[in-house]
Amino acid sequence: MNASATVRALVTQWTVAVPVIAALALVLSWGRTLSPFAVAVVALCLAGAVLAAVHHAEVIAHRVGDPYGSLILAVAVTVIEVALIVTLMVDGGPETSTLARDTVFAAVMITCNGIVGLSLMVGAVRSRVAVFNAEGTGAALATVTTLATLSLVLPTFTIGKPGPEFSPAQLGFAAVASLLLYGLFVAVQTVRHREYFLPLTQDGRPREEADPAALPGRGATTLSVVMLLVALVAVVGDAKAVSPTVESGVEAAGMPQSVVGVVIALLVLLPETLAAVRAARRERVQTSLNLALGSAMASIGLTIPVIALTSIWLDGPLHLGLGATHMVLLALTVVVGALTVVPGRATLLQGGVHLAIFAAFVFLAISP
């Protein structure tokens, strides 16, 4: 089969049709009040777009190899997530002063505990012991910790402005530092020390690269890049479309509004979650950890600079500092994460501990 025939065959697949349908649902539902039936249809489109995004991300990752594939998915999702945050802040006014903080912190807890814990559990069930590279994973965890502390913890203690806010100069410093630190990590991950982020075998050796003859062709890869972007736009947009229903359900249940941020973050991060679990099932736990920690890092390192720029014309305060409960959960995540990473090997217990922290986060979001 020639290249053009291959591309035509790919276009007829569900992984191409579903993102287009999901994007169409986004266009038709944008800015409108949806009926319960319409919400159900959009939710189905959202689920299909998530599955399609995972498929296309895996095609791209197979073509470009680790760790580039996980980096592409993490950055793509985060860029669209940042656009969603900015859109909601512009539309929502002063009531959205904590939206960036709540969304970024939820992303950190979901990735560093939910995705990491689930990946370690799946990897340990598959091979009894999940093996990964301690050097690369430790560097990623250290970067996430620094970014989270600079952007989410320090605003609670600075005195330049009342409340958990940065002064304009402090916000500018945090934005520049976040962007530079994230850029430095990407350079280390993809160029200088790429070997630290490659999947390992059970005896600690790097896994062999895929056979070039089995790699997807350029046409198929280009199509997957385009459809990945379409699917991710649909995921985030459809999540926004169903968010009013989520908000009304949360309000009817008497739960705090911060739960909405958690639910939306869970929906947006579904592609990374499924991709990480599938990688762990193939005994590529390092790829799963690259996805999880890379997403947490990108969420902070890209969101804070954009929010700093948009704050110039946004009205109202910008609350970035975490409360006491969330700071305790963040500190616990960092300590447990360090103890998990240092040996370079994890069992079911480590995965269970991370999932317990994630469950505590969700429970305390519902019942603070």
UniProtKB/TrEMBL annotation:
Spans traversing the lipid bilayer: 12-31, 37-56, 68-89, 104-125, 137-157, 169-188, 215-237, 257-277, 289-314, 320-341, 348-366
Keywords in alphabetical order: Membrane, Transmembrane, Transmembrane helix
Main localization (coarse): membrane
Residue ranges constituting the Sodium/calcium exchanger membrane region domain according to the UniProt record: 37-190, 224-366
Subcellular location: Membrane
Alphabetized InterPro entries for the sequence: Alkaline_pH_Ca-Antiporter, NaCa_Exmemb
Superkingdom in the source lineage: Bacteria
Membrane topology listed for this record: Multi-pass membrane protein
Keyword match Membrane: yes
PANTHER family, sorted: SODIUM-POTASSIUM/PROTON ANTIPORTER CHAA, SODIUM-POTASSIUM_PROTON ANTIPORTER CHAA
Protein name as it appears in the record: Ca2+:H+ antiporter
